[in-house]
Fold these 2 entries.
Entry 1:
Amino acid sequence: MKKKVLITGSSRGIGLAIAKKLLEDGHQVIITGRNYEKLSKTAIEINASGYIAGDLLEEGFSQELYSSAVGILGNIDVLVNNAGLYKWSKIEEVPLENIEQILKVNLQFPYELCRLVVPEMKKQRWGRIVNMGSISGAVGEANASLYSATKAGLIGLSKSLALELAEFGITVNVINPGWVKTDLAETSLTTEQLNEQLEMVPQRRWINPDEIAELVKYLISDSAYGITGQSLNLCCGLSLG
Ligand SMILES: NC(=O)c1ccc[n+]([C@@H]2O[C@H](COP(=O)([O-])OP(=O)(O)OC[C@H]3O[C@@H](n4cnc5c(N)ncnc54)[C@H](OP(=O)(O)O)[C@@H]3O)[C@@H](O)[C@H]2O)c1
């Protein structure tokens, strides 16, 4: 059965790869991002079912995004909370304003969207929520404590919601990627720092965004109904230490 999907942070990077994969699979997909012009061009290129531009930091945007998405699709069967902000910095050097921003984008906004999509999913007794965590949330990352805390929060949120919603045919999972060479990685670390990070990855390679998209495609399928409340590491062995 083809589904109606909302993916946050899908103008580029991992979110865009997920959008392309699910569109190829015949699902209806709405993409989101901040830059209206870029987003509208991307939506045309990939033949998205719709696009909604806006900043997750704006007051009230979760309700606006949800209402606009429902306006386009009628309802939402699948929510992928993918948008995320990363800050690589020693704790004492993190600017105070970053704390609120990263908590909002990485944890509060996903929570707010879950809160909005759940009632309809419960009514139709079918739903899929996939949260994009990080291996940093699963095992910790030095110099990324704020980011890791939010991603660990998504693990707690996913497990708890999975328990709460199991009887309604709704699954909730979190994917924890290791390093993926997107803008997020390339603008946060220098080439030298990225190479150092790669040295710590057992498979000595970057994850391709398409690998994450494949996992999302599986998790939203009926075949994956039994997988809920799971924190899935897709990290080329990085979690093994
Ligand atoms: N890359 C990695 O190595 C890695 C590893 C583990 C986990 N992850 C997680 O995977 C997810 C996607 O990461 P990525 O690497 O694809 O990141 P990315 O290339 O930086 O893309 C981030 C996406 O989120 C959107 N976004 C960010 N802040 C936003 C805001 N305030 N309002 C609206 N949209 C916003 C961006 O939209 P705009 O185009 O408008 O900026 C963009 O679509 C994130 O949750 C990240 O934490 C990434």
Entry 2:
Amino acid sequence: MLDRGGFCRFFRLIIYSGEGAGLKNRKRHVNIPIFIPHLGCPNACVFCNQRLISGKKEFSPDTVRSEIETALSTIPAGVEVEIAFFGGSFTGIDRPLMINLLDVAKEYVDSGRVGSIRLSTRPDYIDREILDILKNYPVGTVELGIQSMDDRVLAASRRGHTALQTETACRLIVGYGFRLVGQMMIGLPGADEESEVMTAQEICRLGASAARVYPTVVFRGTELAAMTEAGEYTPLDIETAISRTVRVLEVFAAHNVPVIRVGLCASEHLTSAEEVLGGANHEALGELAEGELYYKIICRELDVAPPRGGRFIIFVPEGEFSKAIGHKKRNRERLMSRYALCGITFREAPRLRPYQIRIDTL
Ligand code: SF4
């Protein structure tokens, strides 16, 4: 794993509703991910196996234009597009290369074919000098690999920076007027539910416009795999990964901070027993966690006014129908059984915020 945001592999575009926009005005958003593997990163986070995740062994700046062109040819009109430098730590790569890549991306923004630039990096690769450079380019969003705001967890994960450095970086990014996206992990060495909830709260407090949540996957060949085999680390099982993820999703929902990704993208690499030793390695993990949160919220409402075998209609926010009904419609089945209902209908309704629901009797 890595400081990511661009975990989906090279030509897979990431489409989601715009961050921070009101529901009504949300515009579909696409990142064109340019994945820069491990360049400039002298760190050795215990969970990181960047080459495996990127699915790409080498990086060639010469191919960037053709990657952007290929991606642009598949993007429908009316979508907000960002060129996204993901992987490694973009602001830590060789300065001439960083400038070169920013120049290429700027040409696309200047031509009007792309809206802005997005990049991911580490907290200790953010300072005023770097942000002054980024400010000369149409950079809109900086994704920060925060992972945890607990110094014990950061040390056990060998992140090589402190929570204070993260706080300083967040304040600088927001102060310079960039959108901040906070990336955090679930199930790191030394972490527990409390430290993860605290991390999510800190990400909100420090002004993030959006977040990504990555339950830890143990990749073979990483330090974390060695720790697992030595009995020094216990990988998350799927149920625990889901319940701990739900706790942080609740925090982000309470602060109206959209979570634009939960869990790694599905790929053969991620599900292969040859490459994954353990942890939250489930291709529908995000869907399961988001569905679980809806289940929790619906139960909370129904527990206040217990239904008596009636028929209900549950209104959910626009675009949230599949999350609310649950993976393979499991929420509907569980609710029918738990409350002995005759029927439940899910329907999308305008003006509801994510995880806000309304229940009516039919
Ligand atoms: S900072 Fe850590 S997670 Fe990010 S690329 Fe370097 S070693 Fe991997």
